[in-house]
């Protein structure tokens, strides 16, 4: 029986059906987007290890993928989850016990002679910070089952990305609407962003958070390990970072009359903790991807509200991809204009030859 649609209509309906079904899939899996994003990030991080073990040493792919999953769970996921839970718990504690913060603010007001803000505003800000931290950082508050599903989905995706690596890469090359050069450029941008914002930045943040915690402990700041953890997370933010921790700590010590401790915190923070950031970035820039700080900062502001803690990586990556695609668009337009100009020159040359012959 003949169809009632023309070939053009069939093509339009096929594309429409694909888009509608894809929309349902994206909406249905939107709550688990962090699992797929996390799997992609871990794949980029561990791909050199997987290649070295399976190709150079001829290890079994399934075994290597299982070992990498176990390694990422023990060395990355569980420690990061512990730090997140610790941070969320303490922020929620302070949001419910605002008297300690109000006392510190009152001392600062007495020392400076200026009223910073009303007590009600401080309580509201503290409570909002507790709620925001709970949404931003991974925790079990949202349900143990959801957490297990996200973790399992991430590891299953990561496993098949490694075991079926060739098919995965061929599928990307086949279905991505970009030329090979553009795909290669996007892949290089992904590798640089992951290296710079995961490996490099995590190392720099760990060192800065550790130094912050040790400094506060030496100069008798209460809850120094907790503030070191806060420093670790804040160190991901360029320019601001750990000064948001040791700066107020020094000022609070100064308001309490502990001038020696205050000067010590501020000197160590300004001379050692800040400069260790610049030193490590210079050492790691060429090896781990040299990403401009403005791209990182703007990407974090863009990505964190959308993707949560993974936005520290996804945000700068999206911004880098946007810049890469703009460059590709500019290059393709330039190439097309040059081809049109060459065609026009050929037509003019042919017309001149025809005129001369006449």
TrEMBL record:
GO cellular component terms given for this protein: membrane
Predominant location category: membrane
Native organism taxonomy: Bacteria, Pseudomonadati, Bacteroidota, Cytophagia, Cytophagales
Annotated Pfam families: AI-2E_transport (PF01594)
Protein name: AI-2E family transporter
Region called Disordered, residue ranges: 339-358
Organism (species): Spirosoma terrae
Domain of life: Bacteria
Subcellular location: Membrane
Family as reported in the entry's similarity comment: Belongs to the autoinducer-2 exporter (AI-2E) (TC 2.A.86) family.
Topology within the bilayer: Multi-pass membrane protein
InterPro entries for this protein: AI-2E-like (IPR002549)
Keywords, alphabetical: Membrane, Transmembrane, Transmembrane helix
Transmembrane annotation, as ranges: 12-45, 65-88, 144-162, 198-219, 226-246, 262-282, 294-324
């Amino acid at each position: 029986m003949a169809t009632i649609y023309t070939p053009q209509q069939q093509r339009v309906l096929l594309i429409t059906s694909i888009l509608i079904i894809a929309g349902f899939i994206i909406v249905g899996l939107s709550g688990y987007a962090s699992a797929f994003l996390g799997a992609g990030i871990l794949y980029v991080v561990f791909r050199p290890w997987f290649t070295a073990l399976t190709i150079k040493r001829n290890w079994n792919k399934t075994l290597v993928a299982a070992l990498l999953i176990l390694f990422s769970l023990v060395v990355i996921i569980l420690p990061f989850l512990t730090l997140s839970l610790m941070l969320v718990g303490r922020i929620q504690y302070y949001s419910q016990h605002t008297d300690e913060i109000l006392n510190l603010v009152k001392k600062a007001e007495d020392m400076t002679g200026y009223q910073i803000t009303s007590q009600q505003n401080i309580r509201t800000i503290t409570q909002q910070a507790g709620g925001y931290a709970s949404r931003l950082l991974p925790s079990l508050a949202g349900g143990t089952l959801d957490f297990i599903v996200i973790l399992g989905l991430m590891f299953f995706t990561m496993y098949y990305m490694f075991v079926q690596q060739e098919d995965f890469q061929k599928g990307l090359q086949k279905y991505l609407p970009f030329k090979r050069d553009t795909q290669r450029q996007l892949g290089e941008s992904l590798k640089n962003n992951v290296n710079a914002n995961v490996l490099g930045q995590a190392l720099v943040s760990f060192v800065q958070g550790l130094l912050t915690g040790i400094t506060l402990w030496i100069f008798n700041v209460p809850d120094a390990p907790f503030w070191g953890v806060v420093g670790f997370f804040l160190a991901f933010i360029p320019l601001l970072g750990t000064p948001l921790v040791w700066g107020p700590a020094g000022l609070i010590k100064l308001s309490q009359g502990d001038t020696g401790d205050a000067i010590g915190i501020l000197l160590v923070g300004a001379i050692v903790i800040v400069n260790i950031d610049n030193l490590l970035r210079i050492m790691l820039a060429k090896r781990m991807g040299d990403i401009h700080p403005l791209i990182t900062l703007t990407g974090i502001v863009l990505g964190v509200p959308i993707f949560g803690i993974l936005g520290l990586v996804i945000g700068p990556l999206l911004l880098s991809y946007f810049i890469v695609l703009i460059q590709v668009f500019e290059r393709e337009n330039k190439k097309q204009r040059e081809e049109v100009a060459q065609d026009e020159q050929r037509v003019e040359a042919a017309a001149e030859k025809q005129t001369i012959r006449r």
